[in-house]
């Protein structure tokens, strides 16, 4: 297992300082991050829903991208300029209204310049993913 370079508390402090526009409202909570995996929870709100009462694609993509960023930072430390270079999402089933959405992120490969990971998105307590994401991040020279 990799040794995390940032704890959950470190990640939260960094994100509140560097990205207050995205991490101020406490609707997303980092439940764990260990340098290889991360678990995030987005509390349900009506803003997540699209017509028809399902969790919207932008909500799921945003949470998945954020989860990938969190697991990457937990592995490499506070490098704010690491950026998404690719994100691919497969929507598998309807996210249920009234349920929190969980993001289970895992680094698959961590190189010097690129990191590849995947994220499973879950609705409430169901073990069946509502979406599966693969993402690549570019890591700047430090």
UniProtKB/TrEMBL annotation:
Membrane spanning residue stretches: 66-89
Pfam family, one: 4HBT
Domain Thioesterase: residue ranges: 52-124
MF annotations from Gene Ontology: 1,4-dihydroxy-2-naphthoyl-CoA thioesterase activity
Keywords: Hydrolase, Membrane, Transmembrane, Transmembrane helix
GO cellular component: cytosol
Entry protein name: Phenylacetic acid degradation protein
Naturally occurring in which organism (per UniProt): Bradyrhizobium macuxiense
């Amino acid at each position: 297992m990799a040794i995390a370079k940032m704890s959950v508390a470190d990640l939260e402090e960094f994100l509140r300082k560097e990205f207050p526009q995205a991490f101020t409202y406490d609707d997303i909570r980092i439940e764990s991050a260990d340098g290889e995996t991360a678990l995030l929870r987005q509390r349900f709100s009506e803003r997540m829903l699209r017509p028809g009462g399902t969790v919207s694609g932008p909500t799921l993509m945003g949470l998945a991208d954020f989860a990938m960023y969190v697991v990457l930072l937990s592995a490499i430390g506070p490098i704010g300029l690491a950026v998404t270079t690719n994100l691919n999402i497969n929507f598998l089933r309807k996210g249920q209204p009234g349920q929190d959405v969980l993001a289970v992120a895992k680094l698959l490969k961590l190189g010097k310049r690129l990191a590849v990971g995947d994220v499973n998105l879950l609705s409430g307590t169901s073990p069946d993913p509502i979406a599966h994401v693969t993402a690549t991040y570019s890591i700047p020279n430090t």
